[in-house]
């Protein structure tokens, strides 16, 4: 008998099992065809069950349909930038779904073949939609392979207030590395490091302020009212045409140890000189640093230091020093020195994307008083209440005001704070995008603040944000190159990302934190999780496994390339400029140089040589693209 059983064929054994009522093979066959069930449990970070939540299966094909070619059009109430919520809006009753019970368990029976994003919509007011599995599509077989555990984010209670990063780090000391990130190092009191700042990763951070403290005099000349913030050319030497000089600004270290500068009128020497105190710097870790001086109760930015700039560069924007709103200090019509206009203060124009817990409160006199969360380790007391304020991007900018989280019992901790990694991409990316894009808020400037002059609360949907925090949804046309695709102005990485294939596709919806580590645990520059320029292209290869640079370049351009180039050289071209850029991309025979900029495009495409933003453009003004950057470093661009 045993000998005969060994001789049975696979088909015979299947028939014998069926005859005996043994359906051991049926589930496997069913899974291959679809029709299996998807089961699991939905909880929050405190392991509390999420009751009566609806778990949807959103077909990856529907998300793929939303994809379109990148353009500068980003509009509210337009189904093109919220992959999950836009798909769900028109198909809520069509999608397969299940509801969680009192233990958070759910089941979706008979799932059809295909790939799906799994998306949770809680019914309570304490949790946000999405879930930590919502951004990667899975096949029906993968979803049904074993019970799923889905974690959802808490929601900020309406009565929550800001408490400051020091309070957060009391319990979450493992994230103290955040003090080493550029988000925490942006604004610094001259000569003073706050308790929330660690500059050890950036030893040359204050290269510019050191030069100013040593004594530097600038000549402002060649006024051009048609330019933006740099209407003057700036030089440490008297220019060839002294008559073109309007005024000078001499920086010095005063007897009280403070950095100050004195403006003098060259057009009218009888005009009384003015002296200002530089209280803070902002920037300095990578590509530029500016200087905040005080007039009355407000701060104003002046002069930009570019660490990578060189005097021999002909482009005024790429020298070591660049004008930054010197036009506020001199009136070209009256030829007199002036003070900056109050409405152009740093607090009114810029601070919302820097301060934690930013507020702007109207006064009876029609003015505004800016505020930020009190923190004993903050940078400076700007609101005059005797306690320092946190003037840089802290924990609560991404996780939301923490007062209720601090007070809540252990079982409710996760329900009172936002965990971005547990959100669907559209709600996660908008946290970063509000400042890494270029909208206009209700003050009609680049601050994305609401009618109440407040920033977005994490967990808000993209469309809600566009409706309540913007009057112009994103960057203006002038902030893009001529192809209306690639960003030209800096801090538009988020603008790029949501228009890219990485964000709108049927496989994986990329979020900022897929590549970046906001907590700074990795010492890699730009707060990246891994290196992008190493022998393994580690960061890119963490998703794009088994990709050979040689075979890829052979397929794309017809020639194998070794490891002298990296994925980002072609796919993340530096189309944007914030400082002086990274030098000459290519020195042409005719002396007209193409430049390399310093801020990376997040479109992830490869701009071509015939791109209309380049074709026919003067080299010095053309969009930096691969053949002038990565390719141009080895090849003669004119022969490509």
What does this entry look like structurally?
The protein has 640 residues and is of the alpha+beta class. Among the domains are: 1-32, no CATH class; 33-152, Sandwich (Immunoglobulin-like), CATH 2.60.40; 191-352, no CATH class; 548-640, no CATH class. Helices cover 18% and strands 17% of the residues. The protein contains 18 helices and 22 strands. The strands form 6 sheets. Strands 8, 9, 10, 11, 12, 13, 14, 15 and 16 form a 9-stranded antiparallel β-sheet that branches. β11 (245-253) and β12 (259-265) form a beta hairpin. The longest helix has 10 residues, at 10-19. The termini are far apart.
Please, how many helices? 18
The radius of gyration over CA amounts to 29 Å
How many strand elements? 22
Class by alpha and beta content: alpha+beta
* Helix fraction by DSSP (H/I, runs of at least 4): 10-25%
Q: What ranges have pLDDT less than 50 throughout 5 or more consecutive residues?
A: 1-32
Sheet-strand content, in percent, reads: 15-25%
The largest β sheet comes out as: 9 strands, antiparallel
Report, as a whole number of angstroms, the end-to-end distance.
76 Å
Q: On the 0-100 scale, what is the average pLDDT?
A: 90
User: Which term fits the overall shape?
Assistant: globular
So what's the oligomer here? single chain
């Amino acid at each position: 008998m045993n000998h005969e059983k060994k001789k049975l064929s696979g088909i015979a054994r299947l028939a014998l099992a069926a005859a005996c009522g043994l359906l051991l093979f049926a589930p496997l066959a069913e899974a291959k065809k679809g029709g299996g069930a998807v089961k699991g449990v939905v909880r929050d970070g405190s392991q509390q069950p999420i009751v009566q939540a609806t778990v949807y299966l959103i077909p990856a094909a529907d998300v793929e349909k939303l994809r379109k070619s990148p353009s500068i059009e980003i509009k509210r109430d337009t189904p093109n930038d919220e992959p999950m919520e836009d798909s769900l809006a028109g198909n809520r009753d069509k999608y397969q779904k299940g509801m969680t019970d009192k233990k958070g368990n759910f089941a979706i029976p008979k799932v059809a073949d295909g790939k799906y994003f799994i998306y949770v919509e809680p019914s309570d007011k304490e949790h946000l939609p999405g879930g930590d599995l919502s951004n990667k599509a899975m096949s029906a077989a993968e979803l049904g392979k074993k019970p799923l555990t889905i974690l959802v984010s808490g929601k900020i209670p309406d009565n929550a207030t800001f408490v400051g990063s020091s309070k957060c780090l009391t319990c979450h000391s493992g994230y103290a590395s955040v003090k080493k990130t550029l988000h925490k190092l942006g604004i610094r009191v001259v000569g003073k490091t706050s308790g929330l700042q660690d500059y050890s990763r950036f030893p040359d951070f204050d290269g510019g302020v050191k030069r100013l403290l040593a004594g530097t005099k600038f000549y402002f000349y060649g006024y051009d009212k048609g330019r933006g913030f740099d209407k003057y050319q700036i030089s440490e030497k008297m220019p060839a045409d002294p008559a073109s000089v309007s005024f000078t600004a001499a920086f010095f270290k005063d007897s009280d140890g403070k950095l100050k500068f004195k403006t003098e009128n060259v057009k009218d020497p009888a005009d009384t000189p003015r002296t200002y105190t530089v209280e803070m710097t902002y920037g300095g870790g990578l590509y530029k640093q500016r200087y905040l001086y005080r007039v009355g109760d407000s701060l104003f930015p002046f002069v930009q230091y570019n660490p990578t700039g060189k005097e021999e560069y002909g482009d005024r924007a790429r020298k070591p020093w660049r004008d930054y709103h010197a036009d506020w200090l001199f009136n070209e019509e009256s030829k007199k020195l002036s003070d900056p206009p109050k409405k152009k203060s740093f607090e009114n124009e810029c601070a919302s994307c820097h301060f934690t817990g930013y507020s702007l409160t109207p006064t009876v006199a029609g003015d505004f008083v800016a505020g930020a969360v009190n923190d004993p380790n903050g940078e400076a007391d700007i609101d005059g209440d005797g306690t320092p304020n946190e003037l840089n991007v802290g924990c609560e900018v991404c996780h939301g005001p923490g007062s209720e989280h601090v007070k809540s019992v252990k079982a409710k901790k996760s329900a009172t704070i936002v965990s971005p990694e547990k959100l669907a991409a559209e709600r996660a990316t908008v946290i970063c995008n509000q400042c890494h894009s270029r909208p206009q808020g209700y003050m009609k400037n680049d601050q994305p603040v609401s009618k109440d002059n407040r920033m977005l609360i994490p967990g808000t949907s993209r469309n809600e944000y566009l409706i309540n925090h913007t009057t112009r949804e994103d960057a203006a046309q002038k902030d893009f190159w001529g192809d209306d695709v690639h960003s030209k102005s800096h801090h538009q990485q988020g603008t790029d990302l949501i228009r890219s294939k990485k964000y709108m596709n049927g496989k994986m919806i990329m979020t900022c934190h897929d590549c970046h580590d906001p907590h700074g645990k990795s010492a890699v520059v730009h707060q990246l999780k891994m290196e992008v320029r190493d022998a393994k292209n580690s960061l890119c290869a963490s998703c794009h496994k088994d990709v050979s640079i040689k075979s890829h370049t052979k397929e794309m351009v017809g020639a194998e390339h070794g490891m002298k180039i990296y994925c980002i050289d072609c796919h993340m071209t530096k189309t944007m400029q914030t400082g002086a850029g990274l030098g000459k991309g290519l020195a042409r025979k005719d002396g007209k140089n193409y430049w390399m900029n310093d801020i990376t495009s997040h479109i992830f495409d490869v701009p071509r040589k015939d791109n209309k933003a380049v074709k026919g453009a003067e080299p010095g003004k053309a969009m930096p693209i691969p053949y002038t950057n990565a390719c141009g470093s080895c090849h003669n661009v004119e022969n490509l």
